[in-house]
Write a structure and sequence with these properties.
The protein is an all-alpha fold. It has helices at residues 2-16, 19-29, 34-60, 73-96, 118-130, 135-147, 153-167, 169-180, 184-224; strands at 66-67, 70-71.
């Protein structure tokens, strides 16, 4: 289990450092229903990651993700494909980054966050976790690593839970500051939001490249061993 956690913690950190979800929860916390919608958004995020990871684990175990405690060939192929996808996304993000960070623009849907109902906020958290172009491949790769380790079911579930917890730290930090930080919390979160908005594209591009190259290496190692 220790080796598995070593493989997935880097992927979990990559999910946690997601500028758009961090910006989204800060905007949600700034609304009149922030104390309700902030936790709802976080719960939706947790459930989205957990559901996607659980589906991948359910596929991996019956499909023979592990052969004699070694990842099966198809696991290597999945990681290789995800690595190529992330490197491609990284190149595209880097090409699209604004030359002047102060001119960076947020997605238009963020302008409607203050009008979202609690149910829609929950759904937004779910979607940003499970359907995001970066988070989904990383979660699938993490679940494939867990499923290919030949662990007992209990340890697989524990490993996935640890992955989800680490991957949620990026949201838990602003939520904790908001709930416990008092008046200074709004200033702190506002500074975080501004920085994340300006550097979102560049951060995403670097993360895509670094994690994509790691998955490429993992996939090649499995396929050639």
């Amino acid at each position: 289990m220790g080796k598995v956690l070593g493989d997935v913690l880097g992927l979990a950190a990559g999910v946690a450092i997601s500028p758009l979800p961090i910006i989204a929860i800060i905007l949600i916390l700034a609304t009149p229903r922030g104390r309700l919608n902030g936790p709802l958004f976080t719960v939706g995020w947790i459930l989205g990651l957990s559901a996607l990871g659980a589906v991948m684990l359910a596929i991996a175990s019956p499909a023979g993700a592990s052969t004699h405690n070694h990842p099966a060939t198809w696991v290597g192929a999945v990681k290789l494909a995800l690595g190529v996808l992330l490197v491609f996304f990284g190149a595209r993000q880097w090409h699209r980054r604004p030359k002047d960070a102060s001119q960076a623009q947020l997605p238009k849907w963020m302008g409607a966050i203050d009008r979202l109902t609690p149910v829609k906020v929950f759904g937004l958290g779910l979607a940003l976790a499970a359907l995001n172009a970066k988070n989904a491949p990383l979660t699938i790769a993490a679940a494939a690593s867990i499923g290919s380790a030949g662990l007992p079911v209990g340890q697989e579930i524990a490993s996935l839970a640890i992955f989800v917890l680490i991957a949620t730290l990026g949201l838990l930090a602003p939520l904790g500051i908001f709930l416990l930080g008092g008046e200074r919390a709004r200033t702190t979160l506002g500074d975080w939001k501004d920085w994340a908005a300006q550097h979102n594209v560049a951060v995403m591009a670097v993360l895509f490249f670094v994690i994509g190259l790691k998955l490429l290496g993992d996939g090649i190692s499995i396929l050639t061993s």
